[in-house]
Model the fold of this input.
Amino acid sequence: MRARVIVVGNEKGGAGKSTVCTHLAVALLHEGAKVAVVDLDIRQQSTGHFFANRLTWTAAQGAELPHPTMLIVNDESALEEALRADVHFVVIDTPGADTPLSRAAHQAADLVVTPMNDSFVDFDMLGVVDPVTLTVVKASLYAEAVWEAKKHAATVRRETIDWIVLRNRLSSSEPRNRRRVDERIAALAKRVGFRPVAGLRDRVIYRELFPFGVTVSDLSAKVRPAPVSLAHVAARQELRILMQDMDLLADPDPQ
Done:
């Protein structure tokens, strides 16, 4: 059975693509799924570094944690081979730029996950607004690129791509700005066909665990690279809700 392909992407840096990618992959591993990970951000390699850190830390601590299969992809033929991996999920992190490999990954996706910070700065990668009325005028280049990938999947693969936009780093201190962004996202979602979902809040725990290659899904009495607090419990629940909203908690290998 073909692996389900999850592409985490947008064309803007700093929106949390690698954080979302690593947390999704590890959460799926803890659900019992076999997972392969591809980091197409060849220059930055944040996701690749995270899982390299994970191997080093677990070996040093004698900890037992699940690990994905890391696949090296430098061209489209290698990408095609990666998509045939004998796993339940292939999770792909993409660079913050338009590249041939990123476009090919989007076209092969079953699920595209686009993290964005809760601001008009990040909304600009999805849609253009009128500077006077803030009405959505048109889709931006990245939204058009995903729309083209969706059309490619429908015509060539005869399959659909589910597109989710994650609202990361939600803030409760700017209700007016948040409401404005909410309204524009809802309007654009109807136009270009994505589902807006609440993502990950701006929590220190997501950053402080990165050097160890550990996520909130890993934390236990034996795996505790940082002091555990109520914030960790809240973060774990937040991730669990996100997985539910993305329909990723079902049995990966149903009989």
Observations:
- The two ends are 12 Å apart (CA to CA).
- The mean pLDDT is 89.
- DSSP finds nine helices and nine strands in the chain.
- Residues 175-192 form the longest helix (18 residues).
